UniProtKB/TrEMBL annotation, chain A:
It is a multi-pass membrane protein. One of its GO terms (cellular component) is cell division site. It is found in: Membrane. It comes from the Bacteria. Keywords: Cell cycle, Cell division, Cell shape, Membrane, Transmembrane, Transmembrane helix. It holds the Pfam family FTSW_RODA_SPOVE. GO terms for molecular function: lipid-linked peptidoglycan transporter activity. This is Cell division protein FtsW. The chain crosses the membrane at residues 28-49, 55-74, 86-104, 124-141, 150-171, 191-208, 229-247, 253-269, 274-292, 357-378, 399-426, 432-451.
From TrEMBL, chain B:
It is a single-pass type II membrane protein. GO terms for molecular function: penicillin binding; peptidoglycan L,D-transpeptidase activity; serine-type D-Ala-D-Ala carboxypeptidase activity. InterPro entries: Beta-lactam/transpept (IPR050515), Beta-lactam/transpept-like (IPR012338), PBPA_dimer (IPR054120), PCN-bd_Tpept (IPR001460). It is found in: Cell inner membrane. Belongs to the transpeptidase family. The lineage of its organism: Bacteria, Bacillati, Actinomycetota, Actinomycetes, Kitasatosporales. Residues 241-263 are annotated as: Disordered. Pathway: Cell wall biogenesis; Glycan biosynthesis. The keyword Cell division does not apply. Its EC number is 3.4.16.4. GO terms for biological process: cell wall organization; peptidoglycan biosynthetic process; regulation of cell shape. This is Peptidoglycan D,D-transpeptidase PbpA. Gene3D superfamilies: DD-peptidase/beta-lactamase superfamily, Penicillin-binding protein 2a (Domain 2).
Length: 477, 490
């Protein structure tokens, strides 16, 4: 790891100053596309559904454009060397998500079964709140290493967030999974925020303990076995994950946190044995809990035979849902090129069509081509996150960046895989696309953190106080 | 730390790759299977997304469409739905489709393979899919006469009318009927209407297409077929030759006499006289003289024992084999197991009127593409030749006598020669139920051509149990149907 010394005479700093362009103009150019593409998509939906360009086109375009512009200006001012792709990617996904939510707002079927129809304006409001939090992170968090100080506070905070849905009167059980809390008229998914706070705790903790965890171990059958006492932390996280699984009955959240921890542990210690342990423990945990928890069992059954699940729901058998099969039909009906914006029937998924299952709308209306492009946008976000981790010059930054991007990748996989029937369905949502305040706000904060780390990583050390002096030294023998 | 970071990057790449592969599996490999799955509601949404093509009678559509709430955009409407229901069948957003609506569904929705090229062009030019039309052979005036006649009568009944020279079906009425418009949608009122139409809730069974799907004992109308068998098998050579008919006549193998309806001059009566007054003894004896095999052979030539596809399926009419001679005798006067659809009796009449040639009955003249191009045209086709032209003419003259001064005088029409035969068929245990009044007839013009043959059956509690009731109840309806056809030819 290279030194981050601020010494004005340090050799590398001068080269860094020359070699790292800020890339802010690249970001601006990409942002224009990230705003224009959703605006066209929005117009497209209006033309397909109502045969007219939607009345809100201008305000929608201006709203998204304004949010992007403010974001860009603050990045330009407070994180000038940050990664140029992350903000446009998040803006594009968020914009497309808004379009899809608005498109589903137009569905009479969804309007008739729930108080939908107004989801898009709310989501725009959540987006504004998300970007506000993003700005707060960039403006007030000058250096991500400050977060190290809050390692153990983060631990407490994360535990509280994770356990909130279990508090009687506060927690909500929506279709079996207890991962929401209700405050006033808002439903909040604390897990989305816990994801970030936990990453901070893991990064801080592992940075301190990595040497002990990595070096004090015995070799056994080609694997480095950790000492018994070093197993402590992973056991605690494992138990907490199992508890989430048992009490909140959500496989996805549990898998996400445990997976994130294993990734960070592996990066911190460079010990493959942790991966093996992690996989073993998650397999044992998942199978163990699934064997006695009926909700998890039902999710697994629905995944193995979605058609049977559909038939049961059509017969009115309680606790069964047609959603999974309806999502598969939506994907299949989209085919290679899709039906085009506004011309699919993904509203047949009914409940959560615009949140957990929003990917099915993209699959049906944009087809295989559009959905693959969308997945690659997510892949690109993860790639930029990993690149940030590689570029970061401090272990805390590295760990935090890989924790956040690893969790993001896992979440995308768990949600998309669930909706596409690759793995059992869970109650999480697609970052940025899905309707839901918690998800949008938390993920904007996540992008803010990644930008902060990448800015620190790519920022040149301040130039020497008097560059002429150095030159003078060279010229004068 | 960078080595594990690169490995994690690889791992994330694998996650995304897995998703991409799964997506290709879903949206490319399995796409068609998922897209066309019956349970995928999109299949139905697509089906009702465009106005359905129409069913045409006399150049005018007897169907239409209306928009509905919900995800099914259009539903079917029918003009004079109850009158046309035996022709159209129904198509419903909730209850499927039957008869013509089901058989020509592909053309009507525009999804038929024969429209594929056109649809592909339309897709490229951005035109919406449209349905084609089904042009029927029916005659709206004749249909109206038939339906109104049945309705005025008030009992259950049916009418089938055919153009003898081609086999074109001109009228196909059933009463009581139902309006298929009332069940075309998917709403609560449609479900209620549907429930009230079900047989278990409605003893009238209004959705039963009696003209095609119900078999009735044909009674004395079957005697024309027995007469045809006698002539064709050479048992008797002419209408005016005395038959070997004792009176009373005891059925062979039994001690039971076959009664006539009243004191009729049936002893050794000629075929003409026997048909005029409807002698059971004469025709019963002919049947038993000819035997089961020959009678069955003749019945089969007229289309008995086979389902007809016009293209809507009709029930198979019944003439048994392996019967005792006495049972053959009863069967030959349209009793015992003998049972026929109204269509079947119209076919018998039409073959006689068409000088012995039975044409395949059909009701779809042509299928049209949305732009009215003909996709398929039905050509008249000979089905069989049950009797020679000479014998057919002998039979015609006998049937004409029935109408001129026999039991069928109610069917007389000025300007044309009408030939016909009445019938009253008892049924139920010990004939406890209302008898069926039958009338079959054709109208022949001065040039010898017969533009219409018709069969009418009416079940009515007021029908008296004698042979006149066929002439009293059914003949006026047949007459009106024939007149409607003749008038529309002018």
């Amino acid at each position: 790891m290279s030194s981050t010394s601020n010494s004005p005479t340090h050799h590398t700093s001068t080269i860094g100053a020359i070699g790292a362009p800020s890339r802010r103009n690249t970001e601006l150019a990409l942002l224009v596309f990230a705003v224009v593409i959703p605006v066209f998509a929005y117009a497209n939906v209006g033309l397909a559904v109502n045969d007219e360009v939607p009345a809100g086109l201008l305000s929608y375009g201006l709203g998204l454009g304004l949010l992007a512009a403010v974001g860009h200006l603050v990045v330009r001012k407070f994180a000038p060397y940050a990664d140029p792709l992350l903000l446009p990617l998040a803006t594009l996904l968020n914009g497309l998500g808004l379009v899809a939510i608005w498109r589903l707002d137009q569905s009479e079927l969804l309007q008739s079964i729930q108080q939908a129809g107004t989801a898009a304006p709310r989501q725009l409001m959540y987006t504004a709140m998300g970007i506000a939090l993003f700005l707060v992170v960039l403006i007030f968090l000058k250096d991500h290493r400050v977060l190290q100080r809050y390692t153990y506070i983060s631990m407490v905070g994360a535990l509280i967030l994770l356990l909130l849905p279990l508090v009687p009167g506060l927690g909500q059980n929506i279709y079996g999974a207890k991962i929401w809390i209700k405050v006033g008229s808002f439903s909040i998914q604390p897990g989305e925020f816990a994801k970030i706070v936990l990453a901070i705790f893991f990064a801080g903790y592992l940075m301190v303990k990595r040497d002990a965890l990595a070096l004090a171990s015995r070799r056994f059958m080609g694997l480095y076995l950790p000492r018994g006492r070093d197993l402590g932390p992973i056991l605690v996280v494992w138990i907490v994950s199992i508890l989430i699984l048992v009490f909140e009955t959500d496989l996805g959240t549990s898998l996400l946190f445990f997976g994130m921890f294993v990734i960070m542990l592996y990066v911190a210690t460079e010990r493959t044995s942790w991966i093996v342990f992690g996989l073993l423990m998650s397999a044992v945990g998942a199978v163990g809990v699934a064997s006695f928890e009926p909700h998890i069992q039902q999710r697994v059954d629905a995944w193995l035979d979605p058609l049977r699940e559909y038939k049961l729901s059509q017969q009115g058998v309680g606790g069964h849902s047609e959603q999974a099969m309806q999502a598969l039909w939506a994907f299949g009906s989209g085919g290679t090129l899709g039906t085009g914006w506004g011309q699919g029937h993904s509203d047949l998924i009914r409940f959560a069509a615009n949140s957990d299952f929003i990917l099915a709308t993209f699959g049906e209306e944009l087809g295989l081509a559009g959905l693959m492009a969308l997945l690659l946008l997510y892949a690109l976000i993860v790639e930029r996150g990993v690149r940030t981790a590689l570029a970061a010059r401090d272990p805390f930054g590295k760990l935090l960046a890989i924790g956040l991007s690893g969790a993001f990748a896992l979440q995308v996989f768990i949600v998309a895989g669930g909706v596409m029937g690759l793995i059992p369905l869970t109650g999480m949502t697609m970052p940025f696309l899905a309707y839901g305040g918690s998800s949008v706000i938390a993920n904007w904060a996540l992008i803010g953190l990644l930008l902060r780390i990448s800015d620190t990583a790519r920022r040149p050390a301040p130039a020497p106080a008097n560059p002429d002096a150095e030159m003078t030294q060279v010229v004068r023998p | 730390m960078n080595k594990p970071l690169r490995r994690i990057a690889l791992f994330c790449g694998l996650l995304v790759l897995t998703l991409l592969i799964r997506d290709n599996w879903l949206q490319y490999v399995k796409a068609d299977e998922l897209k066309t799955d019956d349970r995928n509601r999109r299949v139905l949404i697509e089906r009702y997304a465009a106005p359905r093509g129409d069913i045409i009678v006399d150049g005018k559509a007897i169907t239409g469409h209306a928009t509905t709430d919900g995800d099914f955009k259009y539903k079917r409407t029918y003009k004079d739905g109850a009158m046309w229901a035996p022709v159209t069948g129904y198509v419903s957003q909730a209850f499927g489709a039957t008869q013509l609506e089901a058989i020509d569904d592909g053309i009507l929705t525009g999804n038929d393979d024969r429209l594929f090229f056109r649809n592909t062009l339309d897709m490229l030019t951005g035109k919406k899919r449209e349905g084609g039309n089904v042009v029927t052979t029916l005659n709206s005036a004749a249909q109206k006469a038939a339906y109104d006649g049945l309705k005025a009568q008030g009992g259950k009944g049916a009418v089938a009318a055919i153009e003898p020279s081609t086999g074109k079906i001109l009228a196909l009425a059933s009463y009581p009927s139902y309006d298929p418009s009332s069940i075309a949608g998917g709403g609560d009122s449609d479900a209620k209407a549907w429930k009230s139409l079900l047989k278990e809730n409605n003893k009238d069974d209004p959705t039963l297409n009696r003209a095609l799907r119900e078999v009735y004992p044909p009674g004395s109308t079957f005697k024309v077929l027995t007469a045809a068998a006698a002539l064709e098998n050479g048992l008797y050579k002419s209408a005016d030759e005395k038959t070997d008919s004792p009176l009373p006549w005891t059925m062979p193998g039994t001690t039971q006499e076959l009664p006539n309806e009243g004191d009729l001059p049936c002893k050794d009566a000629t075929l003409r006289e026997a048909l005029r007054v409807s002698c059971n003894t004469v025709f019963g004896k002919i049947g038993s003289d000819l035997g089961n095999e020959k009678m069955l052979e003749m019945a089969k030539k007229f289309g008995f024992t086979e389902e007809q596809f016009v293209p809507v399926r009709s029930a198979a009419s019944v003439f048994s084999d392996d019967m005792e001679p006495s049972q053959v005798a009863l069967s030959s006067i349209g009793q015992f197991n003998t049972a026929a659809t109204p269509l079947q009796m119209a076919m018998v009449t039409s073959a006689i009127a068409n000088n012995g040639t039975l044409m395949q009955p059909y009701m779809v003249d042509e299928l049209q593409a949305p732009n009215l191009d003909t996709i398929e045209k039905t050509e008249p086709e000979e089905m069989s030749k049950p009797l020679s032209a000479d014998n057919a003419q002998i039979l015609q003259s006998m049937m004409e006598t029935v109408v001129k001064d026999g039991t069928g005088t109610n069917a007389q029409l000025s300007g044309v020669t009408v030939g016909g035969k009445t019938g009253t068929a008892q049924h139920g245990v010990d004939n406890s139920e209302n008898p069926y009044a039958w009338f079959i007839s054709y109208a022949k013009q001065s040039d010898g051509s017969a533009p219409v043959a018709v069969a009418v059956v009416v079940e009515d509690e007021n029908a008296s149990r004698d042979d006149i009731s066929g002439g009293g109840l059914a003949a006026p309806i047949a007459k009106n149907v024939m007149r409607a056809v003749l008038d529309s030819k002018k």
